[in-house]
Each structure stands twice: as structure tokens, then as C-alpha cells.
Amino acid sequence: MTTEAPSKPRDFIREIVEADLAAGRYQRVITRFPPEPNGYLHIGHAKSICLNFGIAGEFGGQCNLRFDDTNPTKEEVEFSESIKRDVAWLGFSWDDNLFHASDYFDQLYAWGEELILKGKAYVDSSSADEMRAMRGTLIEAGQESAYRTRSVDENLDLFRRMKAGEFPDGAHVLRAKIDMASPNINMRDPVLYRIRHERHDRTGDAWCIYPLYDYAHPLSDAIEHITHSLCTLEFEDHRPLYDWLIESVSVPSRPRQYEFARLNLNYTVMSKRKLLRLVEEKHVNGWDDPRMPTIAGLRRRGYTPASIRNFCERVGVAKRENVIDAGLVEFCVREDLNTTAPRVMGVLDPLRVVIDNYPEGETEWFDTGTRKVPFARTLLIEREDFMEEPPNKFFRLAPGREVRLRSAYFITCTGVVKDDAGNIVELHATYDPATRGGDSPDGRKPKATLHWVSADHAVDCEVRLYDRLFRSENPEESGNFLDDLNPNSLQVVPRAKLEPSVRGAAPFTRYQFERLGYFCVDPDSSGEAIVFNRTVTLKDTWAKVK
RNA sequence: UGGGGAGUCGCCAAGCGGUAAGGCAGCGGCCUUUGGAGCCGCCAUUCGGAGGUUCGAAUCCUCCCUCCCCAGCCA
């Protein structure tokens, strides 16, 4: 018997990790997920989370959660809390390894002095505008700052006084002394520290100078003994600076940066700036609006952690730009919910059906094994399940036609009642008592099985139906993405009719409403008033033949 | 047109010189008390293009084309 190797996820990063471990370059892999606490996590972050925590798990290593809190003007504790909640909800644990770049401010500062002492950094007193003007362009070298030749002593003195708060914002910066003529703009004496008289969520007023990402990140990695520092493609150009810093300062370990392509999804936006705008300008109802691609939004929509993890796995990790079809993430929830969600019946757009030969006042309770469903003389079916003049391919109810009511009886439509305007207001039907449970002793097989609900037993629920937030595949493409907002992305059914078994369902309970889709109890529910979010519809081949 | 990346099926993605995995979507069929699910089958003679090396190239070499990223005291 041959034993198949389990097909674990394969990608170029895991190959590198495996090779590094095999070669003995590192004894144990340590990765990190380094969000800046300035927004909510979205599904693109989920890819990075799955990668970093996934690798740590597979190779018996560790993954740190590190907040990149180097810019106090943009960061808030609300965001840190949401990030922790979302990572945990996705099913990953950082154990005791929760860190902050701000934990390292002392060490980072000390290395700033070390750089000065080695002649590798200097205090520049140019204005931001002057620096920009002297940076050169993509095709022209920059010019060296007049302050570049300051003495070590002067630099040290100035840097200490920057730290001491002697200067206003923008008066000086600490810059690396690398090469103003480098074709890589990141190497043209990048700024390492800036003055910001701003209170920091964690360090309070202890600091008025804050390190930049390019400086803090590699050194924080080194402090944490990160082995593989995984980031997105746009940081490829920063890797030489990452390495320069690691090599220029007395760090305790040698991390290496690798870049992969970020996740893009069609029919939505993923940039923090745009998501923030949607929230702030109230185009959606908060970061956890079920239409948002945020983890919080997906959770409220009814997505499961497993479905998001599977999605990330299917999407893969590579270096080429990609736009994933939103249909894939929908496939992943259906795949999960299909096997886990209890089935229940509910009618969104009710049409009364009176079973004329069913005894008045009688109620039967059908036991499906998971719940009991009441059947009575007056039923509600989905309006679109009836057609007075059905086209060829329409299998559902029509005058004179017999269909099965799921788990109940076969019924035959015997009459149509209309109002003065000609709208169908009620149907009449007869049932066949011999088909109790949904099977006919004579082997009759109706072409369709409909969902239904007993009118007198139904519980009224609000149901929120969602559609894609934007009309076009790439909302960023043409001008203002807000112009592309789908005006029908939220449709509310105020009084959908649900079978009574849903009564008392707790928030985040997930169901399949048979033939309609998967639905999840929204936290807006209170007591008797249940609100459902439609997570995703079922695949609908009828919609296609239509 | 400086530097850094990337181009394999509609969307992802394997492939690492030995003759194009897989998933999603799509299309047929079977089955079905959800037009759901499940099952079966089909779906790249061709890898951005052109040359070259080789018995053999998506994989190596050369030239070309296209796309993405970089000129924040953001990350």
C-alpha cells in the first residue's frame, strides 16, 4: 500500500521556509502579522493572516501579532481591539506573542544613535518641501542635503534634543546616509525619525519623535527573531533598505523579507482609505456592515471562519497581480454551510394558498428529524413559485398542476383569486392525503418541490438581502469609486414569514432557508424580533434558464 | 524613458529541460422530497511575441512587447 503524501498547501514562500530549515539557516520559523491599527481588517488581510499563522503552524514555529503603531496621528485603540477579535475569530492564536512596535521605542532610539556614531545617519534640518525638491526624480539623481556633512557630535546632540522635545514638528528629521544618486528612491537617504508632538495610545507622552515604518519594521523583526518577514509586492523596493538597516546596526537576529501579491476581489474595494470613506460618509452602516469586505462584515453576513480560510487556501500565494472572482468566496461559504447549516423554511414574498379539502382548524406537525413544522389549511408559498401561464421550462405550481410541498403533501392548484386590479391574491388547492410526508404510494413524481409555511404559525422576521456593493468589477477604475455604488445592495423584507422553529434563535445562528439561500441571525435582533441577513443565495439554475 | 517586479484556459494556480496538475466559472449527462447538494464526463497540441541552444523547451540564452510598483517627515 502506498501512502500518499498529504497535499499541503504549496507556494514559493513555503518552499523557501522549507529550504531554510533544511539548510539549517534557522532552527525554527517565526513569522509575524503586523497590522497598523488604523482600520478594520479585510479579506485581503485574511490572506496574510492565513499565510503567516499557517506557515508557523505547519512548521512548528510561531507567529507574532505585532501592531505597527509608529504613527500616533492615525491610530486608535478601537482598531487594535477589532484586529485582535478578527484574528482570533478566524481561528488563529498568537499565544503570548502580542507585541507592538512601540514596545521597542527605546531600543529603536538607541540604534538611531548607533547609526549616528557609525556615520550612517544624520539630522537633516531641511523642510519637507526642500527634501522633496532635492530627492530627484525617477530618472534623475537627488542632491545631497547641506546638513549631510554634520559632525557626529552635532548629529548626536541634535537627535537627543529632538527626543527631548526641544524642537517643533518638522524642524528636523533623522535620515540614513546612504546614496542620493541611487536609482532606488528608497535608498536616497530615507527619513528614519520624524518629530510629532502627539500623544501615543501606548506610550502616552513619553515620545515626541516617532520612527517610520522603513526603520521600525526590519528592526522590530530582528528584535522578535522573525525569520521570514512576509509582506506585499509594493515593499519589494524597500528590501534593500530593510537589509541595509539589518546590516548597519547591532541586531540580535537576521530576518529576511519576502514579498507576495496582495489579494484583490472584484466588485469591491479593499484599500483602507476607501473603506474608511464608505464608513465615515455613511454609505454603509459601519465597518461591520454585511456588505463590507471586512472580516467583521463577513462575520456579520454569516461567513464562517473555515470558509474564509478555505478561500485563502484556494486563492494561493504567488507574485503575480490577481483579481479573484467574488464567486469563489461565495462558493466557499456555500461549501461549508451546505454541510453545517440546519434547514428551515421561510417565505420572503408570500402568496396565500387555501387547501380546500383540508379540515378547517386542524394542525399537523411534521417531524423532519431536526424540528417540527406545522401544516394547516392556509399556507403561504413564494409568489414566484406560481405562474398562471407557465412557460415550458417552469416546473412549479400552475393552474391544474400538482407539486410537492416539502416534507408535507402533494397539492394541486384548483383556483386563482384576483383583486380588481387583476393581481393574484390567493390560490386554492386540494391536497392528496395519501402523499403525507411527501411520497405518493403510486409512485407519482411531481416536477417540483416547494417550500411553504403555515400562515397561522409563521413568525414574522425582518430579512436583509444583500447584493454586491458596487456595480462594476473594478470600482476604482473610472473616476470616483463612490459613483459606482450599487443603489440596490441592500433590500429589506420587513415581514418575511418563517417557520416557528426559528423562534429564539441567537445572533449569528446560521440556517439554510430551503431553496432560498443561507441566512444568519443579525445582532440587531431583539427578543421576538429576529433579523436575518442573507449570507448568500443557493445556486440557481432556474435563474439561468429564465 | 532610472530602479524593482510580473506575464501558463474567462478568474486563480501548479510546473524547477523529458513532452501542460488542480480549483472556481462554463458546458453536457446521471441522480435527487431543495431547479440545492452529490456523482460522471467535457473544457490550453499550447504556455506574451520572435529568434536561438538541445534528441527534447512553459522551463536555458537573446531581443522585443504588455502590465504593476516606487519621487509621504503613510504603512
Structure description:
- The protein has 546 residues and is α/β, with parallel strands linked by helices.
- The chain folds into 3 domains: 249 residues, HUPs (Rossmann fold, 3-Layer(aba) Sandwich); 145 residues, Ribosomal Protein L25, Chain P (Beta Barrel); 114 residues, Ribosomal Protein L25, Chain P.
- Helix content is 26%, strand content 22%.
- The protein contains 13 helices and 25 strands.
- The strands form 6 sheets. The protein has a 7-stranded mixed β-sheet with strand order 10-23-24-25-21-22-11, with helices on one face. Strands 19-16-17-18-12-15-20 form a 7-stranded mixed β-sheet, with no helix packed on it.
- Strand 1, helix 2 and strand 2 form a beta-alpha-beta unit.
- Helix 11 packs across helix 12.
- The N terminus is likely disordered.
What descriptors fit this protein?
Rossmann fold, Ribosomal Protein L25, Chain P, 3 domains, seven-stranded mixed sheet, 13 helices, 22% strand, RNA-binding
Characterize the biggest β-sheet.
7 strands, mixed
* Secondary structure: helix percent: 25-40%
In the residues, how many domains can be counted?
3
CATH structural architecture of the largest domain:
3-Layer(aba) Sandwich
Radius of gyration: 31 Å
The termini sit apart by: 51 Å
Q: Order of strands in the sheet with the most strands?
A: 10-23-24-25-21-22-11
Structural class: alpha/beta
CATH top level class name of the largest domain: Alpha Beta
The pLDDT mean sits at 96
Sequence stretches where pLDDT stays below 50 over 5 or more residues: 1-7
Put simply, the count of helices is: 13
CATH topology of the largest domain: Rossmann fold
CATH superfamily of the largest domain: HUPs
